[in-house]
Structure formats: C-alpha cells, structure tokens
Amino acid sequence: MNAAIKLTKDDAQIGYILKGYPRTSETFITNEIRLLEKMGVGLSIFSVKKLEGQKNHAMVKDITAPVTYLPQADALSETRFSKWLIDNVPKFSNSHAQLFKKKPLAYLKVFLECLIMSIQYRTGFFELPREVFVKEFLQAGFIANAAMESGNIQHFHAHFCHGATTIAMFASRLTGIPFSFTAHAKDIYLKELNPGNLLQKKMRRAEFAVTCTGANEWYLKQLAPKGAIIHKIYHGLDTKLFSNSDQEAADKQEEKLPVLLSVGRLVEKKGFDYLVKACAILKERGRIFQCQIVGGGDSDVTEKLVRLIKDLDVEDTVNLYGAVTQEELRDIFKQATVFALPCLVVDNGDRDGIPNVLVEAMSMRVPVISTDISGIPELIDNNVNGLLVPEKNAQAMADAIERLLMDSALRQQLVEAGRNRVCKDFDSQVTTLDLKDLFVSRLADRSEVLHECCAGH
Predict the structure, then answer these.
(1) Signal peptide: which range, if any (predicted)?
(2) Mean per-residue pLDDT, 122-137
(3) pLDDT of residue 232
(4) Sign of dihedral through CA atoms 270, 275, 276, 277?
C-alpha cells in the first residue's frame, strides 16, 4: 500500500449500500461504520429504506457520514407490475436520465443484463420474470448517479449478499466503481434470495467478499472456487461497553431468584420455542427461576410463542419483551444468571452465523448455552467457555440450564474463559481494523491508477 495515501471524509470514500439504516437489530453494522470513521475511512451511506419506529442506539449519534435515502419504492407485491412501474419509475427517472447521458453504452448494457436476469432467474420456465431486478436496477441507477456526481466515491460495499449486493453490482457496472460485500446468514443459504448462479456471479465480479464465520467462509469457497477472495472477519464488539466487573458478576450469583435470559429477533431460527419447552421441563422438576426473552420480530412467531407459553402453563415463568437499545441491553445482561440461545437450522436452510448476543453475553460475564450449529462452535468451546447442546432438543437445553443454575463454580469458570475468548478474538477495535485495511488497500490501488491516468494526459 502507498503510505502517502490518506483517507479522509473529503477524499476517497466508501459508498456503503444498506437495505435500511440505522436498524436496531444490526448493531454490528452501525458499530462497524462508527469505528471505520474513527479510523479515518471516509464513508457515504446509501439506505434503500427509510426505517420508521426504530430504536436508535447511542452510537448512531457518533456517526457523521452523510446518509442518502433512496426514493421510497412501493412493495412489488401490492399491485400489478405495470401499475408499479407507472407509480415508481418517475421517482428515479431524473437520476437515470442523467446517468444515460454520462455513460449511455454502460447504461444500456446493464439494463439489458437486468432484463436477462429477470427471465433467467424465474422460479420456473412458465413463470413471469422476476420483477425485483427491475426495482434494484432503478435503485442502483440512483446510487450510481449520486456517486458520479460526488466524484469521491471509489468503492461500493454492501451488507448482506442478496438485494443490497445486487444493487451494488448494478451500480458498479454502471459506473466502473468496484464493489465488495459482506455475507452473513440467510442471505448465503436461502436459494430464493440468490437464485441459480446469481451468488456465484456476484462473487466473481466483486473485488473481495467478507463473511463473519469460518463455516460461511468454507461454504462460499466451495460454492465459487474461482470467485473473489473471501475474508473471514468476525463481528466485533465494544468490549469496554459490554463489560461487567468481577464483583458485579459475583454478586449476581447470590440472587435468590435466578434469571434465565435470551435475546434475539423473534424468528424461527432462534429456536425460542425449544427454550420455552425447556422452561416447562425445568418447572416440572421444581426449579424456580424467571426466563426473559427480549427482542421484537415476526408477528406469527410471536403469536406462536405466546400460545406455547400459555399451553405449557409457564406464563408465571417466561416473559416476552420488545426490542431494546444496546444501553438497555447492558443493564438487562447485568441481571442475568444464565444466557441461553437454542439456535437451529430451518428447513429452508436459514440459520445464524455467530449470533452477536452470544458474544455480548460472554463479554458481560454471563455463562452461555447454545447449540452446536453453523459458526457457534467457533465462539463456544463446550465445557470451556460455555455449553453446547444439539439443536431442536428441549431436553438437552433444560439439562444444560439446570446444570448451570445448580453449579456456581462452573458458572464462574465459564464466564472468565468466555470474557477472555471475546477480548482475544472479537474485540471490534481489532476486527474492524482488518476491514479497514482491506478498504485502504483497494482505495490506494485505485488512487494510484487514477493518478497514472491523469499523468498520462
């Protein structure tokens, strides 16, 4: 890397393409942006959706990067496509007209590719074209034109390798600006999100790809051996913010009523129904405790959990709470005796990578229990810094919870090892530095190429 290259907010910038910003459940992205800025990387954020009713974490106030919200396109499912086009194309027409004037050949090539993709990636031979690619092309054109007008965006980076990365790929083809992406969980494994060979195509065209677990890294390398270089970078955590003194942890163990905590979006892959069943088993055994499940999410999953809690007669034991900010969550962790998250692989392939709440709990010196799927064993070493049980097994989950509730010495052993594990490999100051180095090397290379081009003239 050229040491003379310095990145500032007025110089070379990364255009971050997100489906929604700031999203309460995506603290790892918000923290990543905050730390990259702190490390001197210039950023511009493009948010496809303008989110309403979100709880913002305190760190959002520290981010100074400009945020551009795209024109809000209607949902494709709410009307006929012809009507959708009439209602939504005008929102993007000015940007596309300007873009066509600047780069007509590139524009026509990408538009043709968009149409081909909409036919190529249909769900069946006799099915209608996939209209979402037209929507993403319109959105990409808006970003591409904005990037060309700004003149200082030299790289696009998208989070999640389905919609946001499709937009980044189109914007890259329209402008010649390279792109990369971070792949996380269901965006990797659900075929309907990247039908056919679409994910492989993105991997071949990207400058590089990042993913948050070794399990994901292995899968992506097998999927596209000749694709972009895959970099495993764990989601980092502010270990200073998520900390709990030894004395506070010790005092917590002396509480009369143990608190079993679980945190996450109320979606199927979190396995909360198995946690509720485990609580019912423990109640039958005469164990007295309180279980708190914290997090908003899917209304259908929430309704099923409410019914299950009632059917199993654990309404006096299990309580559901809505989404909270990081600051509120820290206080909740301080009251927890045990943290349990029974993650599972859904029938359609959806799964977690390494849930951030597990890292947060371990950093807060709360003993953790989870399942031995996906990237979770990369964080939790069974019987060393936490406990692992098989997925979809309420009996095993109940046994593990009971073991920790009854053994204070084991809890203390696990929490110290857990805190050490997080500080060693999941501190965001270290993990974000790895990402920053990737961006800096790309921007430096591109700056050198631009400098040589300009010198040639």
Answers:
(1) none
(2) 93
(3) 97
(4) positive
Closest of 215, 249, 244 to residue 232, by C-alpha: 215
Strands of 175-255, DSSP E = 179-183, 208-211, 229-232
pLDDT in tens, 306-337: 999 999 999 999 999 999 988 899 999 999 99
Residue with tokens 């929507």: 135
DSSP codes joined into one string, 240-280: TTS---HHHHHHHHT-SS-EEEEES-BSGGG-HHHHHHHHH
User: pTM value?
Assistant: 0.89
pLDDT tens-place string over residues 29-48: 999 999 999 999 999 999 99
**Cα–Cα dist 424/102, whole Å:** 49
Kindly state the tokens that stand for 379. 């964080």
Cα distance between residue 148 and residue 12, in whole Å: 13
Nearest to 26 by CA among 139, 184, 143, 168: 184
d(CA 168, CA 275): 39
Q: What is the pLDDT of residues 390-418, one digit of tens each?
A: 999 999 999 999 999 999 999 999 999 99
CATH class of this structure's domain 246-425: alpha beta
- CATH number for the domain whose boundaries are 13-236+428-456: 3.40.50.2000
CA distance 114 to 111: 5
